[in-house]
Amino acid sequence: MAITVTVVDDHPAILSGVRVWYGEADQPIRVVAAGTTVDVAWTSPGDEADVVVLDLNVGDERAPYQRAVRRLVDAGRKVIVYTMQDSEEVALTCLDLGVSAFLTKSEGHEHLVAATIAAAENRPYLPPTLAGAIAGDRGPAHPRLSDREREVLTQWFQCESKQLVADRMNITPRTVGTYLDRVRVKYANAGRPAPTKAALLARAIQDGLVGLHDL
């Protein structure tokens, strides 16, 4: 079954290019909507695309890009920011808001396609710009995780679902969820909430809990 995508960008050449890149991908990816404002991402309930690819500099959202990102994420949408901005601060802010991935347009179509597939499968994806931003940022508060919590966390980053983690570790999916909830609570209590898998991965890398080799 094809992954469905809504693309929000005000450059016709980018829209055309993205359609071509997805059409040439090994895994079927279909652009079901495209437009120059975030409004194009809002369709009838049940008809939403699997992934929203969002340029931060579109329509009336040029300054308060956080508003558009937060609105989509709060509605449960999987958002990939795809922008000309290469600011580490903007990248980390978007992660904190809950996006699935942050890419600059200079990183090429390979990363966009890979990030789209990862987002649709609820997996984190680290393109070079985002990896650099995460590595360069050190949060002030480092919650203390147990060895078991760290083990579950690492396994979850390597798997597409809690069921796969449970199968690997010979525990139940409910137990996996309990460990992950504990980790999220610890980060929230430290003032560094991690509402999504991508955000939690960023926190874990920042704190040295996992490395890129673990993924």
Summarize this structure as a short list of keywords or feature phrases.
Rossmann fold, 2 domains, 9 helices, alpha/beta, Arc Repressor Mutant, subunit A, single chain, 5-stranded parallel β-sheet, 5 strands, 215 residues
Question: Can you put this structure into words, describing what you see?
Answer:
With 215 residues, this protein is an alpha/beta fold. The chain folds into two domains: 3-136, Response regulator (Rossmann fold), CATH 3.40.50.2300; 147-214, Arc Repressor Mutant, subunit A (Orthogonal Bundle), CATH 1.10.10. The protein is 47% helix and 13% strand. It contains nine helices and five strands, in the order βαββαβαβαααααα. The protein has helices at residues 12-23, 65-74, 88-97, 109-120, 128-136, 147-158, 162-169, 173-189, 197-206; strands spanning 3-8, 29-35, 51-54, 78-83, 101-104. The longest helix has 17 residues, at 173-189. It is globular and about 50 Å long.
Helix and strand content put the structural class at alpha/beta
How far from one another are the termini? 26 Å
Task: Tell me, briefly, the overall form.
Answer: globular
- Overall pLDDT level: 83
Q: Work out the number of β strands.
A: 5
Keywords: DNA-binding, Phosphoprotein, Transcription, Transcription regulation
Pfam family, one: Response_reg
Protein name: DNA-binding NarL/FixJ family response regulator
Organism: Actinophytocola algeriensis
